[in-house]
Amino acid sequence: MTERLDGSWFTEIFDRHGSAFSLKVSHKLHDEQTPYQHLEVYATETYGNLMVLDGCVMLTDRDNFLYHEMMSHPALFAHADPKRVVIIGGGDCGTLREVLKHPGVEKVTQIDIDPAVTRASEQFFPALVESNDDPRAELLFEDGVKWVDNCPDESIDVLIVDSTDPVGPAEGLFKTDFLKRCHRILKQGGLMVQQSESPLYHTDSIIKDLRNDMGEAGFDSVATLPFPQPVYPSGWWSCTLAGKGCDVKSFREEDAAAATFARDFYTVEGHRAALVLPPFMQRLLEK
Amino acid sequence: MTERLDGSWFTEIFDRHGSAFSLKVSHKLHDEQTPYQHLEVYATETYGNLMVLDGCVMLTDRDNFLYHEMMSHPALFAHADPKRVVIIGGGDCGTLREVLKHPGVEKVTQIDIDPAVTRASEQFFPALVESNDDPRAELLFEDGVKWVDNCPDESIDVLIVDSTDPVGPAEGLFKTDFLKRCHRILKQGGLMVQQSESPLYHTDSIIKDLRNDMGEAGFDSVATLPFPQPVYPSGWWSCTLAGKGCDVKSFREEDAAAATFARDFYTVEGHRAALVLPPFMQRLLEK
């Protein structure tokens, strides 16, 4: 009775996790070997356009709102008054768009090493780049780690690490050494947020290690927020916040409730609930 | 670059939604054509055992806690004092196990038309049937709709419809007529809960229709609660509660916070948050 997928499907196999996710594809729109990665864009039948990097699903039109809203709004509302925001990675510009919805933000710098990702987003995901002309936005295409190293001490309010998985080009973004560098450039009261993979697959590995590494890097509070993400392994994803002299387990609830900007997923109640981990995660992290 | 799955994978294709989910299988444990459906059990590499009915994933060892906890605890805590509980379907006994964790419950009757499902659960999912000998539990194998028809007026506190998808054998469980029959057997202050498919795929179809049908059937409050469920279409699922003279948007928060029974997912905060739908769902349901 097992069904078989024919050649009209894009499949990503999550080998170590024994699962796979597939989307039915109409045709391929783009195929490019950049200096950094293999970039593909497909038109799918039901998820709109699909961006793939090195064989891994990055985003689709249909469900990217979940990831982009959760990588931005919880971090920005956890900060008392975020004015200076930095995004490492995030070349598709979806996180940038969400950050720019916060009127108090004065400047956002996005540093992605690969301009081809942004070019592909401009061409195939126009909704994601719709705020790129905002005068508060600065787009740089260079090595994010080097950029952080050249950044003055205590100059950033919120640092968003919107990276690919912690294998390959982004591996360095999950190390204690990098987290220490991030800690250095954050102002007192500042915070960082990093995508931290699947609650089901990675709680006692990547998530636990990242939280420990954040502590070792000097951060004094940490919070992992789970959220649904259909196209990522297990369909369930997370981001992890770390605060420097601020408690990332609290946030500006009144401001979040009063915010009128367009969104599809983020709610005050969802933010509050995401700060309380399911018991199975609590147990794994306490072990 | 598209990867291809070889014969060692079980794949379920969600045709109308253009997506598919696959689990790597070690071997098949069971294959049976019951009088009602095709029942298969596989051993997977990373999700434990997998039960499949008519080609659709029903549950795995690894992630069934999400569904079973969300089909039981929100409904039971939304009721003021649930003593008499009925489960239509639910033959794997996972929902029954969760219901029996509530000490105030005096009797739970589970009515599944197909005894083969419970036999398979006894053999391959022993954790799910561990409470079946509880003296408060009654297991019946007959037509749930007929059972409801023979049930006296206003005799049930909580009715849980733990069915397969609204196509095939379970189609009748999603109709207004059936919902009216459910309404009849519920006491004043009683409520029902039904699995209601994917927030991403079904908000403006099955979920919207079910909520409207519940209203037409006489229920005076309704709430749809989303939750993650990796093995179901889109990895994101929902249940919908409907109250008869009770507001299913509130619940016994103090009792839920004080409860000490074992669980992996359910939290008071998660319950509260699940009652506030993501904006995209709110918009689709209001249209």
From TrEMBL, chains A, B:
GO terms for molecular function: spermidine synthase activity. InterPro entries: PABS, PABS_CS, SAM-dependent_MTases_sf, Spermi_synthase, Spermidine_synt_N, Spermidine_synt_N_sf. Coiled coil: none annotated. Its EC number is 2.5.1.16. S-methyl-5'-thioadenosine binds at Q37, D112, D143, G144, P169. One of its GO terms (cellular component) is cytosol. The keyword Hydrolase does not apply. Pfam families: Spermine_synt_N, Spermine_synth. The active site is at D162. SUPFAM superfamilies: S-adenosyl-L-methionine-dependent methyltransferases. The keyword Oxidoreductase does not apply. Belongs to the spermidine/spermine synthase family. Catalyzes the irreversible transfer of a propylamine group from the amino donor S-adenosylmethioninamine (decarboxy-AdoMet) to putrescine (1,4-diaminobutane) to yield spermidine. HAMAP family: Spermidine_synth (MF_00198). Homodimer or homotetramer. This is Polyamine aminopropyltransferase. The lineage of its organism: Bacteria, Pseudomonadati, Pseudomonadota, Gammaproteobacteria, Oceanospirillales.
